[in-house]
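Run log // design_07
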């Protein structure tokens, strides 16, 4: 029973770490990256639709991105959605067939703001891990009458080790993203 709780906890914590890494990828660096546009929602015929479902994204150069819509009538909506996206600072242009996005060079001040943003996202991910740990600890405590206190104590030590391991994974991803952001 304890093994089941720990297996479920491992699975949930791994998903939380993956979600944090995806969240880090949406923060822009000096380069144009298609992952930054994952959360762009386009108003397509009255319903918000992810950009990736409406167009293909290509990265021909370090600071530019070409978005080719599957439906040419969505060009204006895609352009507007990119312009309205906060923390992107991109200025899209369209030539009737494609949307070209050129990312401006980041200033040192802006890089520091992005580092703060990434740290906040990292802290949110750690809070999520601690929430998962707390719920799992409650599940372990509920098993006390069936298993025994020694087994529960052993399970809690394993739970703490799991939590520490996943927090370290988030810290490593955070350090890599910070280095990427501060790289000129």
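design_07 sequence
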């Amino acid at each position: 029973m304890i093994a089941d709780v720990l297996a479920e906890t491992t699975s949930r914590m791994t998903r939380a770490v993956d979600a944090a890494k995806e969240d880090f990828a949406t923060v822009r660096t000096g380069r144009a990256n298609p992952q930054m546009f994952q959360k762009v929602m386009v108003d397509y015929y009255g319903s918000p639709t992810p950009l990736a479902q409406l167009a293909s994204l290509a990265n021909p150069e370090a600071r530019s991105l070409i978005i080719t819509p599957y439906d040419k009538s969505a060009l204006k909506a895609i352009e507007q959605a990119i312009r309205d996206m906060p923390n992107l600072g991109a200025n899209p242009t369209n030539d009737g067939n494609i949307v070209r996005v050129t990312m401006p060079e980041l200033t040192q001040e802006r890089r520091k703001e992005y580092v703060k943003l990434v740290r906040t996202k990292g802290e949110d991910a750690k809070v999520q891990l601690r929430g998962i740990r707390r719920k799992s600890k409650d599940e372990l405590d509920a098993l006390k009458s069936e298993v025994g206190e020694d087994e529960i104590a052993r399970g809690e030590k394993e739970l703490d080790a799991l939590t520490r391991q996943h927090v370290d994974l988030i810290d490593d991803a955070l350090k890599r993203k910070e280095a990427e952001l501060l790289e000129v």
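DSSP finds six helices and six strands in the chain.
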